[in-house]
Amino acid sequence: MINLLNEHMNLKLDLLYYFEKHNDNLIPQWQIEEITHLSSFKTMNLIDELITDLSRYPESAIILDKKKIYYIKGITNEVINHLRLTYIQNSLHFQIYMFYFRGGHNLKILNHELGISNAYSYSLIKEINNELATYDIKINNQQLEGDEKKIRLLTFEMLAFYYKGITFVHDDPMVTKFEKRLLPFIKYLNITITPSTSFQWRLFIELIYYRLSQGMCVSTPTIRIDESDDKTIEIQRLNAIMSPIFKSTFHPLTEEEFNNEFYYLIEFLFSENLLIDQDIFTPDLFSDSVINPISSLISSIQKFKQDTGLTDEVITTLKYELIPVFFKFYHFSYKSDSFNATDHLGIFKNLYPDASLIVEDFFEKQNWNMDLPNNIQLYYDCMFRIINFVPQSVLESPLYICVDFSRGPVYSQHIKNNINAFQSLHIVFEKKITEKTMLYISDFSTYDYDIPQVIWKAPPTINDWDILGQTLVDMKRGSL
Fold first, then answer.
1. What DSSP designation does 398 have?
2. InterPro entries, per this entry (predicted)?
């Protein structure tokens, strides 16, 4: 992701992320200095700045508890999101970048508004270009130069990361007017406008508006659909809605330029699963880079399958569900601050051990590093598709459990109902102990069978349920 915060602001964020993990703890200053790599004096100044920043949030504080020992209180993800947005909005690098992204030309006027000299602004542009060089983008001749799709996607990624729906990016009445003209398009798509989809849609449309207003068009689309096919009636109708809006707003816009922009928008909606009929995007429309990994993932499922429930129908459904996942991974992949860290992978693997094993096998075949943020997001996307569209019996061998309480069948059924909360583990209840039984749960110990037992003499507590959950996970992993 493009990083347009200076080193000082990045350091403040690093400390905030660290403090978030250590709320209600005492932290000595020497420990903080190990993170900042600054002197005691500069570290104290940095902490003083953070204390001032946090003063707007009554529940959050960094309190000097003893000499050079700090107590951390109430630094939450929500607080960090708001401060992060403030930092980027105040960043001179960011303001200059967005000035050129939106088509600004008179840098002297911007310099006057920012209160900086022309010489200093040119030094900032040089630093921005150093950051953009990784992506083959640069500010040159009073404009952003580079692949247009890459410019838009990287800007979308950056703005989505920092703004996160806290507020909106623009206050431009022309953009608002353009958005309103697109309402028929939204209605036809029948998109459920949740806060997250609304933010993504509005942000993507805003970026299109600013770039097309400068005559900056995207190149040939990745997918080209045969609109003469009866199956593409939805695309034809969407095209008919969009064409007069785009051509009257962005003049002159040729037919080819409009079609490129139209399909670029359709591709984005497809990658976000926002189209009514995703099935018109058949596998033959996509390159091998999208289709081959899907085939590899399905072969991993077949390798680990537990029964014959992996029918042709299931495979076909799964392929269609995975196409937008891998299309997004290769063409619209952007970093978010959710589902992009390895911190919670262990919990997810425990909940869905067999599905996780399949995805890990697939990643190993692709030689993909699980530690990269985009790859972690792909891991979750693959997991969610497998869990939701592949029958549980295909993925996991069942856990056979006998529940037998002396209080009678009604109480035993009550316990079973609560155990069903662990539905991801594919539990099968048995009326009596058999050769298949893997766990016996009761208030009555039995010595006639050599199987693991959970004995509850009283109604189970929260801790009892936690222990049972871990026991079931250990059984599923074969470690019990």
1. P
2. Mga_HTH
Return d(Cα 338, Cα 235) in angstroms, integer.
32
Q: Which fold has domain 398-476?
A: Rossmann fold (3.40.50)
Q: Residue 386: helix, strand or coil by DSSP?
A: helix
C-alpha to C-alpha distance for 160 and 166, rounded to whole angstroms: 10
CA 240, CA 184: separation in Å to the nearest integer? 11
Whole-angstrom distance, CA of residue 210 vs CA of residue 102: 5
Residue 344 token pair: 């919670």
C-alpha 213, offset from chain centre? 30
Distances in Å between the Cα of 385 and the Cα atoms of 60, 235, 306, 313, 323 are 39, 25, 18, 15, 11
Closest residue by Cα to residue 93 from 2, 154, 162, 157: 2
Distance CA 422, CA 43 (A): 47
Look-up of token digits 């602001």: 9
Closest of 448, 455, 449, 461 to residue 403, by C-alpha:
455
How far, in Å, CA of 427 to CA of 401, rounded? 7
> Which two tokens mark 134?
């990784």
Residue position matching structure tokens 């003469």: 228
| DSSP, residue by residue, 357-377 | HHHHHHHHHHT--TTSHHHHH
Q: How far apart are CA 411 and CA 403, in angstroms?
A: 10
What pTM, to 2 d.p., does this model score?
0.84
Q: What is the total residue count of the chain?
A: 480
Digit-coded pLDDT (tens) for 207-246: 999 999 999 999 988 876 766 666 577 778 888 889 999 9
Q: pLDDT digit string (tens) for 148-174?
A: 999 999 999 999 999 987 877 777 888
Indicate the pLDDT class of residue 309, thresholds 50, 70 and 90. low
Q: Which residues pair with 86 in a beta bridge?
A: none
Cα 24 to Cα 41, 63, 287, 393: the distances in Å are: 24, 11, 52, 44
pLDDT in tens, 272-305: 887 766 667 777 778 888 899 999 999 888 887 7
Q: Please check whether residue 435 is in contact with residue 421, taking contact to mean a CB–CB distance below 8 angstroms.
A: no
Q: Give the whole-number percent of the chain exceeding pLDDT 90.
A: 45
Give me 421's structure tokens: 């909360």
Q: Which fold has domain 7-77?
A: Arc Repressor Mutant, subunit A (1.10.10)
Whole-angstrom distance, CA of residue 217 vs CA of residue 477:
52
Q: Which residue has the tokens 């662990």?
A: 422
Tokens standing for residue 327: 């299309």
Give DSSP secondary structure letters for 42-73: HHHHHHHHHHHHHTT-TT-EEEEEETTEEEEE
* Interaxial angle between packed helices 40-54 and 77-90, expressed in degrees from 0 to 180 and rounded to the nearest 10: 100
